[in-house]
Amino acid sequence: xxxxxxxxxxxxxxxxxxxxxxxxxxxxxxxxxxxxxxxxxxxxxxxxxxxxxxxxxxxxxxxxxxxxxxxxxxxxxxxxxxxxxxxxxxxxxxxxxxxxxxxxxxxxxxxxxxxxxxxxxxxxxxxxxxxxxxxxxxxxxxxxxxxxxxxxxxxxxxxxxxxxxxxxxxxxxxxxxxxxxxxxxxxxxxxxxxxxxxxxxxxxxxxxxxxxxxxxxxxxxxxxxxxxxxxxxxxxxxxxxxxxxxxxxxxxxxxxxxxxxxxxxxxxxxxxxxxxxxxxxxxxxxxxxxxxxxxxxxxxxxxxxxxxxxxxxxxxxxxxxxxxxxxxxxxxxxxxxxxxxxxxxxxxxxxxxxxxx
Amino acid sequence: xxxxxxxxxxxxxxxxxxxxxxxxxxxxxxxxxxxxxxxxxxxxxxxxxxxxxxxxxxxxxxxxxxxxxxxxxxxxxxxxxxxxxxxxxxxxxxxxxxxxxxxxxxxxxxxxxxxxxxxxxxxxxxxxxxxxxxxxxxxxxxxxxxxxxxxxxxxxxxxxxxxxxxxxxxxxxxxxxxxxxxxxxxxxxxxxxxxxxxxxxxxxxxxxxxxxxxxxxxxxxxxxxxxxxxxxxxxxxxxxxxxxxxxxxxxxxxxxxxxxxxxxxxxxxxxxxxxxxxxxxxxxxx
Amino acid sequence: xxxxxxxxxxxxxxxxxxxxxxxxxxxxxxxxxxxxxxxxxxxxxxxxxxxxxxxxxxxxxxxxxxxxxxxxxxxxxxxxxxxxxxxxxxxxxxxxxxxxxxxxxxxxxxxxxxxxxxxxxxxxxxxxxxxxxxxxxxxxxxxxxxxxxxxxxxxxxxxxxxxxxxxxxxxxxxxxxxxxxxxxxxxxxxxxxxxxxxxxxxxxxxxxxxxxxxxxxxxxxxxxxxxxxxxxxxxxxxxxxxxxxxxxxxxxxxxxxxxxxxxxxxxxxxxxxxxxxxxxxxxxxxxxxxxxxxxxxxxxxxxxxxxxxxxxxxxxxxxxxxxxxxxxxxxxxxxxxxxxxxxxxxxxxxxxxxxxxxxxxxxxxxxxxxxxxxxx
Amino acid sequence: xxxxxxxxxxxxxxxxxxxxxxxxxxxxxxxxxxxxxxxxxxxxxxxxxxxxxxxxxxxxxxxxxxxxxxxxxxxxxxxxxxxxxxxxxxxxxxxxxxxxxxxxxxxxxxxxxxxxxxxxxxxxxxxxxxxxxxxxxxxxxxxxxxxxxxxxxxxxxxxxxxxxxxxxxxxxxxxxxxxxxxxxxxxxxxxxxxxxxxxxxxxxxxxxxxxxxxxxxxxxxxxxxxxxxxxxxxxxxxxxxxxxxxxxxxxxxxxxxxxxxxxxxxxxxxxxxxxxxxxxxxxxxxx
Lengths: 357, 286, 376, 287
Description:
The complex is a heterotetramer.
Chain A: H1 2-21, E1 28-33, H2 40-50, E2 53-58, H3 61-71, E3 78-79, H4 86-93, E4 96-97, H5 111-120, E5 122-123, E6 126-127, E7 130-142, H6 143-146, E8 164-166, H7 170-179, H8 191-208, E9 212-215, H9 219-227, E10 233-237, H10 238-247, E11 251-254, E12 261-267, E13 269-270, H11 276-286, H12 289-299, E14 302-303, H13 314-323, H14 326-330, E15 333-334, H15 342-355
Parallel strand pairs in A: 1-2, 1-3, 8-9, 8-10, 12-15
Antiparallel strand pairs in A: 4-13, 5-6, 7-10, 7-11, 7-12, 7-14
Helix pairs in contact in A: 8-15, 9-10
Chain B: H1 9-35, H2 54-57, H3 70-103, H4 109-117, H5 124-146, H6 157-182, H7 185-193, H8 198-227, H9 230-235, H10 242-252, H11 257-281
Chain C: E1 9-20, E2 23-34, E3 38-42, H1 49-57, E4 64-69, E5 72-73, E6 84-87, H2 99-109, H3 114-127, H4 143-155, E7 161-165, H5 173-190, E8 193-198, H6 201-207, E9 210-215, E10 218-223, H7 225-230, H8 235-240, E11 245-255, E12 258-263, E13 268-273, E14 284-289, E15 295-297, E16 307-317, E17 324-329, E18 334-339, E19 354-359, E20 364-368
Helix pairs in contact in C: 2-3, 2-4
């Protein structure tokens, strides 16, 4: 028996040692990204073409910043934060590395989006982001059961007790502010004004709480709630609405009256990226129109790749046009960069909403 | 209220029913998890759509089975490696600690003993957070001073192991100390008297005697590491252990593949439990 | 103890002292043990005998003094290098090993060759009369067998001195009696020097060539069992070795070796003084009389012993060969134990009978009262 | 070699790894956390010493409320666990014999062999609107529409009690097992009633087990994250969640550290008070 114990112990030691000693096989690219932005198919094609292995970690804006803050900008080789969240995080925590634009094939990218992103992600004259996927936040509504919902505030309407879901994150605050007739973006530079707006929103959200089934945090959670009928309306991303629409015609994405919130997710290099070349290769690879099309099909959102939409299924285009009549496209509110300090105020509002009963 | 004291049939009956209900309470959630691993539905919920093994074996989305779900399999691998390291490190230190506190006399021993026990009353979250904060402080300082990144101090497997090691050691120490306390130290003296050096005496006499405790503690360490969530969550890097991977999916409302993983875990734990029972009941000297 | 340079000593202690804080466990103990003898250290628990033994084994280090084995100091030698082996109080057989494993343990530590280990283990097992026990587990052995294995485990190493720490304590009475004899025989066949510590006087008296009586860290007396029994040199030895009746009193008169004592209760006894005590008239003394040295007088045929009493039987304590009468002395209400003669004489005495008892002055030992009292 | 230097040497060898572990993994991280919690961000990458993170806690009622609620729910969970576990432990320790006893005891350990996540997951499947209990209630006709039993305090409580049950049962069975039957028999023999025997013989004897079980269960509940989050849903409101939120979604380590320290102080205070009330010593109870 003693021998078997020794064997067990030695076996464990061996496993542990092998795990340590075994070198990282091929070159790897560690992606910190959103669900759907790196579909299996695309990864496989990239691996075949370059021999670089891709390892993907699903994440969201806050999580990306917090992970990179904790690692001091290491642990990942390429991240995909939204363009408005880059500069403040960079200023505070120094977690990104400037992009070498000469290594980006700019000809593949829609120039207006590239220019806008460049502008919004510049700090001290250095550019930290390149656009990738863009989309909007708005309403996902089960038209049969909650057809009356046209704007964010309608989520708090009567007869919806325990039937709606949204995130407890800053887009919700911004969206509600717009639908309550305020312009939070204009108040970005005026802290006092901004706080006043948020106070109003906070009250609204607390009053709204009985209507909430759950605060979703990941896209799939929202999809499941809507699909199972446990929720009939949600504040969510357009892509989620369209995905649901494919299976259940009653559910679709609706651009709210006060305007959908437009976001652009970017490519940003963590400061201590270990595979910078691979990261550039990946960026140039996924911005190819046919690859961009595949990503759009998987994520449900359009990309900043020139001509990417030719490869997108007609169904999605039709859904987009249905949700966004031309006037609504013009009405999209694009996020300006968040000045530092605002998120702290927002955080407290969110906490208070969460805690209210 | 013991069998030798008679009590009414009614009392005994009620008592037995109560205990029975308790065990139903204990077993139900686990049984349910296991059963729904075989439900042919996209959600781990009613209605029952008939049995299937798809959640183990199916090769394609959307009903991707466990054995083809690379992410889950990889996270099991990560958990396994982490658990191995944690177990080894905790056992080694815990054995040292047991000898330190049971055998040695030194000033401040009581204080150190209490400090040794403190991880039991530090919430796992805080332990994780504090280790994260401290390791980044050091790593940032090293980067400033020497322009060198101490990568192992950044969130990742090493830090996860360290974090788990911090509190699992205490538990292992308690298990091993309890056994060492019962150990007749004259056996060790006898060994030295028969010509063994102190180290040889410990290796040939004391450690074999501690073996059941070491195996028991090892299994406990392994399981605690494998199951840990709170501390790990704060320290995890790009390689997610199983609990973190499962939590990420659970938040999103995952498919019954999670039931499949859970069932697998239950079976594996059951086997470990049997091993430990087997070793504990083993007669000394065989 | 007489010095004798012709005899070789296996073990010699010189002025060995060991204190734990304020408490002196072993106080300037000196003794010598000739080769091949069976030496016992007898004393009540807490007298320091275990500490002394552990210093011999090397588990404790004396504060002062010198320990020599075969004439060489072993103070700097760690326990595992000392040419002594020890049989522990609870034997300390390794439960994780077989009998063979236990016996071979010390040989393995000396890197003895496998073949030789096998023959030596077989040989020693034969000598302790357990030739087939080699493959047994420790928990399969009886108490007596364990005892023999524990001794075999030490003797196979051919130590200069074997230390035994009350190894019979855990055994039941019958087995203990049997093991006493067996131990003595083992010692004789192996010819190894045994140092045996015990609080049981019978073990010490039966087995030993020499016995040291130890009390409060000191050796009170070293001698053969007979010397200790018949000629105790201190009141402690008198009280500890064998049974005794004890009184306190003072000296009324001294006539050579004969002394006249008046006890606290008022009895007058005639006793004998131990030479080295040099008692004077008026000194406080303790008086010891063994129950077995008290005669029960035939009323028709009185002896002329100097100490004569009349008393009433208040209890008959029947215990076979060790039966006693408890007798009250009516003048003083004092009590005295008297051994029941094994001849059957007086067997008819019952509670309430009155009898005459008497004893010789030589059987009535007087010692100066020591300050540290004990209940002998 | 001198014996005393020999043991000194072994002492240092044993002491060194322990002290390293204690310093590097327990003490210094907490010291560092204190120092982080005393920082306030002035501007980007520029911090100053301040108590703001602590005053924040006292000014903002929401943090207070979460704090008190967490402590209160944990105490409640501990008491409920004790009340449920005591009769069961007693049954196993004193009413059962031999194999059946061992079997029941091992059965109690089963939940431990499965991760907390799986346990909570099981309750989610049972309690959710589309779950087993809801379907069952509809099937037997007690309800005509799906019932949501998840996302409320009762669900949290069930989860907490379930998760910590084992840590109460094991110490209780161990101490009750060590109570000699003859003491109970003597209690009855001398005229005691069931109640007398329970309160004057059994409970005093089981006190160390009760206290150690309570401490562990309390700490586990207080530090729990998964159960309140997954079973509590939108109203979970748990203090550990605040800490996670500060660290992860707000990347405000300063505030998070302050909360962590406060939680640590709270838990130490409650454990200390529990020990004082029950007149037990920490070292005795925990080992």
